[in-house]
Design brief:
The protein is built from three helices and seven strands, in the order E-H-E-E-H-E-E-E-E-H. It has about 150 residues and is an alpha/beta fold. It has one domain: Nuclear Transport Factor 2, Chain: A (Roll), CATH 3.10.450.50. A hairpin with a 2-residue loop joins strand 5 and strand 6. It comes from Microlunatus elymi.
Length: about 150
C-alpha cells in the first residue's frame, strides 16, 4: 500500500439498506491504487467502464459518464506526475471518502489543489465519484494566501 494512505486514515460507516459492505482491505487497495493513479497517471482498472463522475470546482461543474472520459478529463487538467498527500480516508459500507492535497508542475509553474472525493464501489471498482476541488492555485495565489492567512494545521 502507498504510504500516503496511512497518514490520517479514519473510519466511518453509515449502513445503507440493501448495500453490500466492502472489506477494509478492498478499500485500502482501491485508495492506494487511486493515489497511485493521481500521482502517476497509470490507471490499474480501478474504474468501472461506466463510472460516473461529478466534478465541482469553485466556479464550474463538469460530469463524465465513462472511464475513458474521466481519464481524459484528468489528463487534460492535471499533467503527470504529481504528489499527493492524503489527509484522511473514511471507509463507508459502499465506498470511501478521501481528502487530500495535490502538487504538480506544468510549464515551469508549480500548482496546488485540495480535493475531496466520495467514491462508490461495486465489484471492487469505483462506479461513481463526487469530486470537490478548490481549484488550481499557482505560486502567486499560494504566496498571497501565505501573506494573509496563518493556518493552524497543514
Amino acid at each position: 500500500m502507498n504510504s500516503a494512505t496511512n497518514s490520517t486514515a479514519g473510519t466511518a460507516a453509515s449502513p445503507m439498506v440493501g448495500a453490500t459492505a466492502i472489506a477494509q482491505t478492498d478499500t485500502d487497495d482501491l485508495v492506494a491504487a487511486l493515489v497511485d493513479y493521481l500521482e502517476s497517471g497509470t490507471q490499474q482498472g480501478i474504474f468501472a467502464p461506466d463510472v460516473f463522475a461529478d466534478v465541482t470546482f469553485p466556479r464550474w461543474r463538469i460530469q463524465t459518464a465513462t472511464a475513458e472520459d474521466l481519464l481524459r478529463l484528468r489528463s487534460d487538467s492535471h499533467p503527470h506526475p504529481g504528489r499527493v498527500r492524503v489527509e484522511r480516508v473514511d471507509r463507508l459500507d459502499d465506498g470511501f471518502v478521501i481528502a487530500f492535497e495535490e502538487r504538480w508542475s506544468d510549464d515551469a509553474e508549480s500548482w496546488y489543489a485540495r480535493e475531496l472525493i466520495r467514491a462508490d464501489v461495486v465489484d471492487h471498482r469505483i462506479c461513481e465519484l463526487s469530486i470537490y476541488c478548490t481549484g488550481d492555485w499557482d505560486s502567486a495565489r499560494r504566496s498571497e494566501h501565505d501573506r494573509q492567512v496563518t493556518l493552524i494545521r497543514p
